[in-house]
Amino acid sequence: MKVSTIFRNFGKAVKKIIPVIGWILIWQFAAVYVKQEMLIASPVSVFIKLFELSLSPGFWQSIYFSLSRVIRGFLFAFFGGILSGALAYKFMPVKAFLNPAMSVIKASPVASYTIICLLFMPSKNLSVFISFMMALPIIYINVLQGLLNTDKKLLEMAQVFKISPFKKALYIYSSELMPFLLSASSLSLGLCWKSGIAAEVIGLPLGSIGEKLYQAKIFVDTKELFAWTIVIIALSFLFEKVFIELLKKLMEKIERL
């Protein structure tokens, strides 16, 4: 790697780190000003608490519990949104049937779904379903828009040369759809984590991150509350980066075929 490239990458990393440090300092000043750990725990005390939590097996079990369910809900929504969007693009009656349902799902509050779902399913599966419901309309709408915006000239060319539907989907629709999928994934992943953990806080499945947050609130343990919030943000950020990177690599492989 060239020296100039190393310095350029270092400069980019510094530009990203400085704002984070700035916000941590603001947090520290606020904690010093309030002088009440019960209200605003300092960054140092929160990170010490986070380290203490990480030493217990229950910490990692809770992360696995919530992570596996939120990811499952998102993946169901991702593939379900692609399928339903493709069907809506191909068949107008399907689009007419699905559009009102997607609008209702998109507009309804998470709390309403959570309370209703608790009547029909065990709380341990709640975050899967809620994450699925919150992400599905975003994926569906973006897939449908991406397909509708496909270059008509490319489709006409494919028809003239009698390209098979499989190759058309692989070489034309996939490349046209990718920017919409990337945008939809980025938006819906954050929403999946927010809604999934919120559902756990209401349903209180045993061993979940939501249950830990609720316990921290009951015992007014601000340090633990902040620590778990950092965990949620970190998991959301990391999974989004990994998933987006995998999508990009998949697209690169398709383009090389």
Could you please describe the fold and organization of this structure?
The protein has 257 residues and is mostly helical. The chain has 2 domains: 1-35; 42-256, MetI-like fold (Orthogonal Bundle), CATH 1.10.3720. Helices cover 85% and strands 0% of the residues. The chain is built from 10 helices and no strands. The model has no long low-confidence stretch (mean pLDDT 86).
Low-pLDDT residue spans = none
Spell out the CATH superfamily of the largest domain.
Answer: MetI-like
Mean pLDDT, to the nearest integer, reads 86
Whole-number total of structural domains:
2
Query: Which structural class is indicated by helix and strand composition?
Result: mainly alpha
Helix content: over 70%
Order of SSEs: HHHHHHHHHH
CATH-level-2 architecture of the largest domain: Orthogonal Bundle
**Which CATH class of the largest domain is shown?**
Mainly Alpha
Biggest β-sheet: count, sense, barrel? Answer: none
Q: What fold name stands as the CATH topology of the largest domain?
A: MetI-like fold
State the total count of DSSP E strands.
Answer: 0
Helix tally equals 10
What coarse outline follows from CA principal-axis ratios?
globular
Rg measurement, Å: 22 Å
Kindly estimate the percentage of residues that lie in beta strands according to DSSP: under 5%
* Distance between the amino and carboxyl termini: 28 Å
Pick out its properties.
10 helices; mainly alpha; MetI-like fold; globular; 85% helix; 257 residues
